[in-house]
Design brief:
alpha/beta, four-stranded antiparallel β-sheet, globular, disordered N terminus, binds adenosine-5'-triphosphate
């Protein structure tokens, strides 16, 4: 009737218009009363106040103002989104460069628009969709870049890191004192050694531009690539192998490498055969060919040995053939045979021209001698920088020689370690020794020449500068991008996620056992009839089913997701793929198993408890939807929590809140006003409502049996007891769908916003 009324009003408007007959409404509008008012004043259309009110376009505007405002609003939002998207795309970078190039003659100045765009750009959390323009910039002279990257010398000077103490008035803690300087050369292996806690890992991360952001930290120093300074938190073109290596445990060595090769090199190695060749080559180089089809495993799942896992992580890092390889304790946790194997692998890579820098802890004499250079640190100070072969002589020269049978590595570590617990005199002597060694090291560091010298001829200087400019695009984090488009990223990520879900046999079996056990327990206890007592029994059973499903789905995700997040955060930080495709793939990969588990549970509980026949399919659909919503909730908690401990600590209060607001435990009127919104997003409330509506609609009860409350004859009357008589299953599906969408969106932003940030290295204070 309403629509007909509106239509009639429109027709009247069209028929009676004196100005012209074009005055027609194209969309439904609620402004007909206005239109009709205007009709009465119909007259001549002119450019007077009265006249305008008689014009057809004015009527059209009034009739459609809501739609016009909405359209303009949507267009503005779309334009804004497109602009922001464009800013994050590398096309913007290319255009900015072109305009700046053209503007060299001072044609249009200043480029304030680019300044505003750059400010917005740097604050955007999302990254670029397109990659090809970036390749144009980065690879416009591949030969020049190739030659530059074949041999890279990494210099570092005056590295200093201070940590502000939490208590006010307590002076900053000095982690690196500003004396650490050195250079890692192509074809050579540099070992960073020192006692535990001396600052080795911090030094390596500082050189690499990978010190994790902490607002209490101040980092300063200088870094050079081939004599050219590298600024801020820029990366150097390197492979960085962390001490803790995490992989998806159920993927084989070959699958892991296939996945990484495609995402990192997909745009360069266009055919599958080229990519397969690279995988083969990497496995050969790192001695992994025999284990190609072995799953990677982890502490709980038997797979590769510790040494093989370390070598796999080196292989993964070497995919883009970086000229520099940095490793944080690659031998930790390995026996001496495996440790030596890893170091020998590195030696081979150095012999091919790579620059290797590695933190190393108590190496064997043989492994130590495979290194060329040594950076020795103690208590954040430089103790020695120079050739490994000269360290013994250097220490002897300072008066700290050692007996011939003691290994060199062991001896130098003894020399730079503070003696604790052996009396005040011994400690004092060790402190004096460390100071004397540090003093000598300072002289060595002062003599180092790291920056490009003025004596270089002009041609050399020019080519290095040009190359360094290109390199900036590669190493600057804001220019890093995945090697393939988002659709290929999504396809690969979905494949990996499905593989992990389906291959996790132990987790699968545990979940099946849980579902069977719960089904049998409920089925053994509940037999629902049609007497009065069965009404509360039904409500009780449905409530338990929902609480159980929420617990299981949420706890499972909370437990497993933070581990996966650790791997994914690293992959996201190295721009292997974007958060969006990862997230969608992750969410979709969970769906099939949710259906399977719910079907197992439903098939047991339904006949055993004698829930209403004919409603099984809807029951299955509703429990599956509820499980998806619970997992999505778990994902939010997992993605915003900094660790799995925090996520697990958040779980009980969230479940308790959900139970309180499940629609039965507190009435809406008595809920504190500030908490009423929780009622609307109560997972258990919506899950329970859906199952109750499905079960009770169409049921009839006999008046026999003990009852609680008045006699209830129909399912609809029973639903009214819980205020569910006005609700429909479609309302529940709508609410759950919105909950799922909201949770996925929150998790997506949680992941994007908790992305790892790194410290920017400031120039040293003069
Ligand atoms: N972000 C940080 N916050 C607090 N302390 C830090 C931070 N980074 C480093 N430190 C401290 O700086 C010191 C040096 O740490 P680093 O990990 O570099 O030592 P290390 O020589 O590698 O030790 P190990 O051989 O035991 O791994 C340690 O006492 C460490 O606690």
């Amino acid at each position: 009737q309403n629509i007909a009324g509106k239509f009639a009003a429109r027709t009247k408007l069209t028929e009676t218009s004196s100005s012209n007959k074009k005055r027609r409404s194209f969309w439904g509008s609620q402004k007909n009363n206005v239109v009709e008012d205007e009709e009465e004043k119909d007259g001549e259309c002119s450019w007077t106040k009265e006249g305008i009110r008689n014009c057809w376009w004015w009527h059209l505007f009034l009739a459609e103002s809501e739609m016009i405002i909405k359209s303009v609003g949507i267009s503005v939002v779309c334009a804004l989104i497109s602009w922001l998207w464009y800013l994050r795309s590398e096309y913007y970078v290319a255009e900015e460069q072109d305009v700046k190039e053209e503007n060299k003659g001072g044609k249009f100045e200043p480029l304030a628009l680019f300044d505003v765009a750059n400010a917005v750009r740097s604050s955007l959390p999302l990254s670029s969709l397109y990659t090809s323009a970036a390749e144009d910039i980065v690879c416009d002279n591949p030969e020049q870049l190739k030659s530059l990257f074949q041999s890279v010398e990494v210099g570092f000077e005056g590295l200093s890191m201070n940590l502000q103490q939490k208590k006010k008035g307590v002076p900053d803690r000095v982690i690196l004192d500003g004396s650490i300087s050195g250079v890692a050369k192509p074809g050579r292996m540099l070992a960073i050694m020192g006692p535990s806690g001396s600052g080795k890992t911090t030094t390596l991360h500082a050189i690499a531009g990978k010190v994790k952001y902490d607002k209490r930290i101040t980092l300063s120093g200088k870094r050079y690539i081939n004599g050219e300074p590298v600024t801020g938190d820029s990366l150097i073109p390197m492979a960085f192998v962390e001490q803790e290596v995490n992989f998806f445990p159920h993927m084989t060595v070959k699958e892991t490498l296939d996945f990484q090769v495609e995402l990192k090199m997909g745009s360069t190695l266009k055919t599958q055969a080229e990519r397969d060749n690279l995988v083969k080559e990497l496995m050969g180089q790192l001695g992994l060919t025999k284990s190609a089809n072995t799953i990677v495993g982890n502490a709980k799942i038997r797979g590769l040995s510790g040494g093989e896992r370390k070598r796999l992580s080196i292989a993964c890092e070497m995919i883009s053939s970086p000229p520099v390889i940095m490793l944080d304790e690659p031998t930790s946790g390995l026996d001496s045979y495996q440790a030596t194997q890893v170091i020998e692998t590195l030696r081979k890579l150095a012999d091919q021209g790579k620059t290797i820098v590695s933190v190393i802890h108590q190496p064997s004499q043989h492994a130590f001698q495979l290194f060329d250079d040594l950076l020795l640190v103690s208590e954040g100070k430089l103790m020695y920088f120079g050739e490994v072969s000269k360290i013994r002589g250097h220490m002897e020269g300072l008066g700290f020689g050692c007996e011939s049978e003691v290994g060199t590595a062991e001896h130098v570590l003894d020399c730079v370690s503070r003696v604790v617990g052996a009396g005040a005199d011994a400690e004092k002597a060790s402190v004096e020794r460390i100071e004397a060694i540090a003093k000598a090291a300072k002289k060595q560091a002062d003599a180092l020449e790291l920056a490009t010298t003025n004596e270089q001829n002009e041609e050399d200087k020019d080519s290095v500068k040009k190359a360094a400019k290109k390199m900036k695009h590669i190493v600057d984090r804001s220019h890093m991008h995945p090697g393939v488009n988002i659709f290929r990223q999504f396809k690969r990520l979905l494949g990996r996620a499905m593989q992990e879900t389906l291959r996790g046999k132990a987790a699968f079996i545990i979940k099946v056992v849980q579902q069977v056990a719960l089904g049998v327990i409920y089925g053994g206890i509940y037999t629902l009839g049609d007497n009065q007592a069965s009404i509360m029994d039904r409500f009780g059973l449905l409530s338990l089913i929902v609480i159980g499903a929420t617990n299981m789905a949420m706890a499972g995700t909370i437990r497993s997701f933070p581990k996966e997040k650790a791997i994914v955060s690293n992959e996201l930080a190295s721009s292997m793929y974007r958060t969006g495709p990862y997230f969608i793939a992750k969410a979709l990969s969970e769906l099939p198993l949710i259906g399977v588990f719910n079907a197992i549970f439903g098939a047991i509980i339904y006949p055993l408890t004698k829930l209403q026949p004919g409603k099984f399919k809807t029951f299955l659909g509703l429990t599956s939807l509820h499980s998806i919503a619970s997992e999505a909730f778990g994902l939010v908690i997992g993605s915003i929590s900094p660790s799995s401990d925090v996520a697990l600590a958040l779980f009980p209060p969230i479940i308790v809140l959900n139970i309180i607001f499940d629609g039965k435990n507190i009435s809406e009127e008595n809920t504190p006003a500030a908490l009423r919104w929780v009622n609307k997003i109560g997972l258990i409330k919506w899950g329970f409502s859906g199952l109750a509506l499905n079960e009770f609609e169409g049921l009839e009860f006999s008046t026999k049996g003990p009852r609680r409350g008045p006699v209830t004859k129909t399912g609809e009357e029973a639903l009214a007891r819980f205020g569910l008589d006005d609700m429909k299953i479609s309302d529940v599906i709508g609410a759950q769908t919105k909950l799922i969408a909201g949770c996925w969106l929150l998790s997506f932003f949680g992941l994007a916003l908790t992305r790892q940030k790194y410290e920017v290295m400031h120039s040293p204070r003069k």
